[in-house]
Amino acid sequence: MTSDLEGLAERLREFARVRDWERFHTPKNLAMALAGEAGELLAELQWLTPEETAQLDPETHDRVRRELGDVTNYLVRLADALGVDIIAAAHEKLDDGERRYDPATHRGSARKAPR
Question: 3-84 in CATH: which number?
């Protein structure tokens, strides 16, 4: 993790520790909480048009920002609990995508590439 993510992970770890919540912060529970928060994020955008999502009104933007914070916190907490460097994992996935989705073949296409 980068120093910013590492600092966030440490703060989240301490937040859970002082509340005696570590026993609840199992990978399964954190993944479930992450999915729930991702659902709350989706709910904020669910019935908006693509144009409306590109230009959120201030109230909706604030709600989306808060839900993104929740998603980020649970993702960072889960990665910390599993000992996963999420920045390295993201770069690895991007490397894989660059190999699988050659621009000359996939430009402008939503077609899924074989593994």
Answer: 1.10.287.1080
